[in-house]
Amino acid sequence: MFPTEKIIRGKWSITLLRCAIGWHFFLEGISKFVSVQWTAKGYLENAIGPFADIYHKMATSEISLIIIDNLNIYGLILIGLALFLGIAIRFACISAIILLILYYLAYPAFGDYYYPNTEGNLYLVNRNIIEALALLLLICIREKGYGLYGLLEIFKKKDYESMEGKTGITRREALKHSVTIPMMSLLGYGAFKKYQRSGVDVLSGATRKLNVATVDKLMGQLPKGKLGKFEISRLVLGGNMIGGWVHSRDLRYVSELSLAYNTEQKIFETLLLAEQAGINTINIGFPSNPILHKYKKITGSKIIVISQVAPDMEKNDYFCQIKEAIDYGADIIQIQGNWVDKLTRDNKFEIIEKMMEEIKRQGYMVGMGSHALKGLLLCEEKGLTPDYYMKTMHHDRYWSAHPKEYREEFEVIGGNSEEHNKYHDNMFCAFPERDVEFVNRSKIPVMAFKVLAGGAIDPRDGFEWALQNGADFLCVGMFDFQIVRNVNTMIDITNNLKGRKREWFA
After folding, report:
1. Which of 304, 301, 323, 298 is nearest to 312 (CA)?
2. Is the pTM of this model over 0.90?
């Protein structure tokens, strides 16, 4: 192979590399421009890198957001055009590298990445780094490939037809240097036709946005109450949605649907949004401890974790989950409601007592969950009083509530009945009026859960009923798209609450 052929092939290789990166930048910018509602706000708000605080502050100012949005849109477009067409290549490469470094620092590839904006984000190296290194190569080598810069150089020559002593060579060179124009036109036409068919490329990494509501529409600050040494939001995020325990009556697919929706990425997005909206506490089933531990480790979150625990009856080990929950970093330990129901029903109060003693010995607050009021009444008689109750609280004025004459104590743990008028994952307070009476005479904090009866009651109705009837906190399972609306509902109700007789015990 002659040296000239090697040079020509190298020139074409550099041209293709430069055009590929340029097209990527250009299309990202155009996608943002066409998507009228695009903003960098969500990207900045959820940054998790070492300079996360700086990115977060950028998202708080409307003026800085306008500047950042425009720099992103028009910067990407201009850099892309310059690289593709071959104009001011060195300047475009330097500008592109700066942008890529800023993107990388917002979501660095530390191997535990969850945000969807950068594909192939494994450990240290991701797409941003690879593109930046490729651009650095273009800066370092003398060869820039074919492009409009070459045309300008040729036209500067006075005797361009006789360069290198061969008539016509320069004309062919001029055609090669102008090849990026029809290439750009062809790709642009294809992208335009695609846009006409299917809209913006929603799979493009840099055009992706968190698919969740923002906190712009919050009506105020979520109120808090004291639970021991912790100051927690009166609206607590429930963990059932995350764990896939969805009460759906006879709709058998809903739990699987919830699990499919709540991927690790979506769980992290939901937790981030909840914290931004003012929810600083989550109550989780024991199996969800690893994901919360990972979330807090990656993001540096200070969210307060209430972990439910249960005894291992097969091994006669009542403390295994307590120890594991503590190892995972739980802040408050709560004996799981189904197990309080089972143990009290079966007259095994000594197990509850031992678990409570162990939790307190470890220096943690003890919560006692329950669906059946009778279990709490029996514990009370035995002198087993926790630091707070976690009690189901909802009324029975909804369509799928079964008739009162068919309701039974402990029916929640008795399994689903095939009889239409009996329990089938549809009711968690068999006798609401008795629950209200118990809560109103309780002298310790009460965290109400299942206040919406597993989604059967409207949030405004369920929240107001539980707060009016004495609940100090509401624990509510929520998908990400429900969080801002529910927080606003809670703020509005607590600010205008009437008819509550019980004093706040938290």
Report:
1. 323
2. no
